[in-house]
Design a protein that fits this description.
293 residues, two-stranded antiparallel sheet, 45% helix, single chain, alpha+beta
Length: 293
Amino acid sequence: DKNTNAELPGFVRFGTKVATFSLHIVSMDRGSIMRGIASRYVKILTPIMLAAALILISGIFWYDWQNQLSINAEASKKNVETANNSLQTWLGDQISIVRTLSEDPRLAAACANPSDPAAVEAARAFLKSVHGKYPYYENIPLVAKLPANASINVLAEGKTVAVKSGQFFIDTVDNKTIGKGGEAAQFIKEVFEGKPYFISHVYPSFLRGNPLFVISAPVKRDGVVIGAVLVAPQMNFFTDRFVNSVRMGETGYVFMMDDRGMIIAHPAKESILNEKMVERFKPLLEKAKTEKE
């Protein structure tokens, strides 16, 4: 009947045309139906499961990364503390050395009589022997505290040098620094005025221009300051021992600056005593000072 819309067995009406069913669809069993449903659910759930897995992996990675950062930070802190303790111990040793030197009677005899060749030679020989045991010192000079306007003549590198109070009249580098220093130099001024020792800023060497610092101690006789002895550790030794040897992970490193903001120890040697670096690291210095307070 062309007016009826009922399904005919094996046929279906689309408008005025009749299309034939595929008989195998009609005859599908229960297992096939369930597999089809499962397949559809798998297609739906697979992206969801992948997304969940990615979120889980990302969460694990984030936790592991944060945990690793914490471990690295703690390890770096311990490395810095170890290096700092080693540095403090080493500086204490250097102070002990220079103070022990200052108490040697040969140095007192030379400072009391800087024009006496025998006294001067005995002090020089002693200091050179000490320098041989500590080759990381640039120099171990001796100065005498003389009356105002007084000077002594010292032969150095083929010429006579008029040496004034606080200037080097003995050194351990073949008289190449005779006449250097002076009472205006802080490392002389401080111990002449009564300090038991003094550690200077890092500055260019008088001899070669390389970075070093000075530790000085007064030479006394009967409790009166009559001179001073100095040791001058070279910063390349200092940097290699206390800076380059410390590692912070794979690419991190340690450097040191003084209270002026001047870099005094750094793996990149061109950064040491480079005034251009002062402004760059000024915020870091201010932060360090604030945290210290």
